[in-house]
Amino acid sequence: MVTAPIIWLTALAVVHVERVVSNFRSTSNNWQDYIPLLRLPFLSRQNKQATEYRQRRDRYLTTFLNMLKERIANGTDKPCITGNILKDPEETLNDAEVKSICLTMVSAGIDTVPGNMIMGLGYLASPQGQEIQKKAYEEIMTVYPNDGEAWEKCLVEEKVPYITALTKEILRFWTVIPICLPRTSIKDIKYNDAVIPAGSTFFMNAWAADYDETHFKDPTKFIPERYLDHQEGSGTPHYGYGAGTRMCVGSHLANREIYTAFLRMITAFEFVPAKDPQDWPVLNALDCNSIPTALTTEPKPFKVGFRIRDKASLERWIRASDLRTKDL
Predict the structure, then answer these.
(1) DSSP for 161-177?
(2) Would the N or C end of the chain have less CB density within 10 A of its end CB?
(3) In this structure, are residues 84 and 268 in contact, taking their beta carbons and an 8 Å threshold?
(4) Number of folded domains in the chain?
């Protein structure tokens, strides 16, 4: 049996490796992506490091896949996407292709959703965020007035419009991939008097799109209400997932993760600023990034205070959650 400390250490290793791999994908700091000569082994120090982290990633993906195969053989596996593929007699994927699916399950959102949640929490805990936090709690209690109801039902339904709006505004305000991954045009594109030839590389400035004054009113202000009633940004509410047919395929899962996390946290806690103003978060979407050249936002460290609203209730909710998930 795998013990809890080992699982925790493995999770930390996975997060670290995936974070480093994400930095390799920087759109502004990897000159070898644009100057082929820099890819030569004796010129690029990153090649060696990239190979090392690719090998580390492959080791834990192989371990996870073998663990799943063993559980399937023993009849002790739990339902999962990769397991369904392995057990499908009509599937013909090889191990490399199955590992690619495993990678998606393990790493998708690992360097983006945390940035949104950390900075969203930082804003709610700030002096500016206190009224928003108060309103969010009132809206949750209006929909779920009974003890424990919000904690449980947010897992299976999304019925608090203000938390949905808060989720969208967090994704807009904290554009954690400011410059999206590149895309290549497949045909000539006429733009005004110019023709952009097929095969051209495009980068979308998602941050600029999310702060476009012609699309959002007062874009530099954090206003969840912009997504209630008369919604701003109709069609594309924000560009946190990119846009178009190649936008993030995990957007629906990420929306539910952020919605559920904030609804539960706001139900259980009141967030307050750190006692020392020097520990407060940087609330500018660009300046908050500790690694400006990274692909995704790596928030600068800050502190917030958590005040439990009802300790007895929270302990009861957590016990019930532990009981339901003890066999996972």
Answers:
(1) HHHHHHHHHHHHHS-SS
(2) N
(3) no
(4) 2
CA 277, 278, 282, 287: dihedral to nearest 10 degrees?
150
Q: Which residue type occupies 238?
A: H
Indicate whether 29 and 128 sit together in one domain: no
Element (H, E) at 131: helix 130-143
**Residue 225: half-sphere exposure toward Cβ, Cα within 13 Å:** 8
DSSP 212: -
Distance, in Å, from the CA atom of 43 to the CA atom of 86, rounded to the nearest integer, reads 42
Concatenate the DSSP letters of all residues of 216-246 into one string: SSSTTS--GGGGSSS-SS-SSS-SBTB-GGG
For residue 64, give the amino acid letter. Answer: F
How many residues in total does the chain contain?
Answer: 328
Residue 61, burial from CB neighbour count under 10 angstroms (0-12, 13-18, 19+): buried
Same domain, 227 and 319: yes
Per-residue pLDDT of the chain (328 residues; tens, 9 = 90+): 445 555 555 778 888 888 888 887 788 777 887 888 887 877 777 777 888 888 999 988 888 899 999 999 999 998 888 889 889 888 788 888 888 888 887 777 888 999 999 999 999 999 999 999 999 999 999 999 999 999 999 999 999 999 999 999 999 999 999 998 888 999 999 999 999 999 998 899 999 999 999 999 999 999 999 999 777 656 789 999 998 888 888 899 899 999 999 999 999 999 999 999 999 999 999 999 998 888 899 999 999 999 999 999 999 999 999 998 887 6
Q: How far is CA 30 from CA 107, 184, 186, 239, 296, in A?
A: 21, 18, 24, 23, 14
- Provide the pLDDT for residue 232: 66
Single out the residue in 52, 73, 107 at which a domain terminates.
107
For residue 288, give the amino acid letter. Answer: C
The boundaries of the domain holding residue 119 are 113-325
91, 107, 123 - which closes a domain: 107
